[in-house]
Amino acid sequence: MPLWDWSYAFSILPDLLLALVTTIEITVLGSVVALLLGLVIAVLRRARIPVLDQVLWAFVELVRSTPLLVQVFFLFFALPRFGIELSAFVIGVLALGVHYATYTSEVYRAGIDAVPQGQWEAATALSLPRSRVWTGVVLPQAIPRVLPALGNYVISMFKEVPLLLAIGVVEVVNEARELGSETFRYVEPYTIAGVLFLLLSYPASLLVRRLERRRVSA
Amino acid sequence: MSVPEPMIVFDGVEKRFGSNVVLHDLSFTVSPGEHVTLIGPSGSGKTTILRLLMTLEKVDEGTISVGGRYLSHQDKGGTLVPADERYSREVRKRIGMVFQQFNLFPNMTVRGNLIEGPTRVLGLSRDEANTRAADLLELVGLSDKIDAHPTQLSGGQQQRVAIARALAMHPDVLLLDEVTSALDPELVAGVLALLRDLGETTDITFLCVTHEMGFARDFSHRVMMFDGGRVIEDAAPEQLFTAPEHERTKSFLQAVLDH
Fold first, then answer.
1. Handedness of CA B40, B45, B48, B50 (dihedral sign)
2. Mean pLDDT in consecutive groups of 10 residues from the start of chain B, 259 residues
3. B115 to each of A142, B88, B131, B140, how far by Cα in Å?
4. Beta strands B95-98; B222-227: pairing state
5. Cβ contact, residue pair B117, A127, below 8 Å
6. Nearest to A124 among B54, B107, B116 (CB)
7. Which of A20, A110, B103, B196 could serve as A118's disulfide partner, Cβ 3.0–4.6 Å?
8. A193 φ, ψ to 5°?
9. Domain edges within chain B
């Protein structure tokens, strides 16, 4: 048996590409959750509302201090006990999204803190409503600064999607595992899975680096 | 002779930062259309007065009123309680402020900066706000910069746009916080000329913190000298600059003029 069989490799490629679509879907949806929820957490924490602030702080610390895999299992096994029946796909999106939201919230916070105090004061001097201060003045200055950092978290998330094989989500690595178990040939499917990640992650990280350089030169 | 209702009233105002008392039991009034300049050594509390009026700081004791309405407090069933955000935003619409560091919004063009308040706060249509912006840019001599970004402008130009932005709100009171201190010397004159012009052609009430004594002298109706969080002298500029009563005022003016 050769180490690498090209005809076998080509025969499993369509299945792996199909599973890659699932991986990308989870990454995109998870990113939407992470980017929006992280922003909400950052803005709410900036308001320093008593009790809510402590609750958010505790939540962020809890999520950041426990493994993602534990959170995935927790949601998968605990939610049905509360009568919430979700597919493994949806649980995967939620787990990744919420987990990464705790990281993006810190990124947003840094971006918000970097907006000079004078900008808040000028907005107050114009009597702008609170919501408009955020959407018109602070966030348009804070978010461009942190786009590279946010982009890096999206790439990290993409590479963590295979963790969801633990709850049976058929993404690329899980598909590779199943294909391998049918033929007892594992080298081709796992290698192709790895190459597919590389083909997407590397250009994405180049893009982020370009964003970073543009920020620096701007 | 009828006495006009004062535009600004400070009544027993105290402001502390931690254990440091920056304003002691301060009471004064400013009439509508009056130009008042606050002078004094740094840390004497003069900038704090502007920041209290803009609600960038909260008073610890006493009350502030603007145009006959409490700014720091609101009347709830006969008792005064600290003003909430909504109420103080309503009262401070009448007040504009120009900052030492301009604080233009860098994410907007000059036009965006000028129409932001009128459209979002005063409820003007975009067309009305654009007309107002164009008129004001003509007034400050920067009509050709309407689509520029703040970063493309010199400090003096940015400050003139910032003045136009404050004027776009049609304020009754304009607070000027060391508006020429961050400018290169050759750009100061243009900004001061604009302010002199506004002083003559509008009935805005000005409260001004500055180190430009020449400007203070011919712009102000009244000069208040601060030291250690108290007013130690309050007089017409001719009086205060030529024959100050207090030793502290004399030594301060000496130090500033020697500089």
1. negative
2. 81 93 94 96 90 94 92 85 86 94 97 97 96 96 96 96 97 96 91 95 96 93 93 94 91 84
3. 22, 22, 9, 16
4. unpaired
5. yes
6. B54
7. B103
8. -55, -45
9. 106-170
Write the pLDDT tens digit of every residue in A86-127.
999 999 999 999 999 999 999 999 999 999 999 999 999 999
Distance CA B150, CA B254 (A): 37
Does B181 contact A at CB distance below 8 Å?
Answer: no
> Could you tell me which chain A residue has the CA closest to the CA of B120?
A128
Residue A118 to chain B, least CA–CA distance (Å): 6
A125 CA to chain B: closest CA distance, Å?
6
The structural domains of chain A, ordered by start, are: 6-217 (1.10.3720.10)
B18 vs B213: CA distance, rounded Å? 32
Provide the CA A180 distance to its chain's centre, in angstroms. Answer: 28
B166 contacts in A (CB within 8 Å)?
125
Task: Please identify which residue in the block is written with the tokens 């949601």.
Answer: A75
Query: Measured between CB atoms, does A141 come within 8 Å of chain B?
Result: yes
Beta-carbon separation of A127 and B121 below 8 A:
yes
- Which residue of chain B is at minimal alpha-carbon distance from A142? B107
What is the identity of the amino acid at A26? I
Under 8 Å between Cβ of B227 and B248: yes
pLDDT in tens, chain A (218 residues): 788 999 999 999 999 999 999 999 999 999 999 999 999 999 999 988 999 999 999 999 999 999 999 999 999 999 999 999 999 999 999 999 999 999 999 999 999 999 999 999 999 999 999 999 999 999 999 999 999 999 999 999 999 999 999 999 999 999 999 999 999 999 999 999 999 999 999 999 999 999 888 876 65
> Are A125 and B96 in contact (CB < 8 Å)?
yes
Query: In this structure, what token pair is assigned to residue B207?
Result: 């409260």
A51 Cα to chain B: minimum distance (Å): 20
Give the closest-approach CA distance of A176 to chain B in angstroms: 47
Q: CB distance from A215 to chain B under 8 Å? A: no
Residues of B in contact with A125 (CB under 8 A): 54, 95-97, 99, 166
As a whole number of angstroms, the distance between CA A54 and CA B164 comes to 42
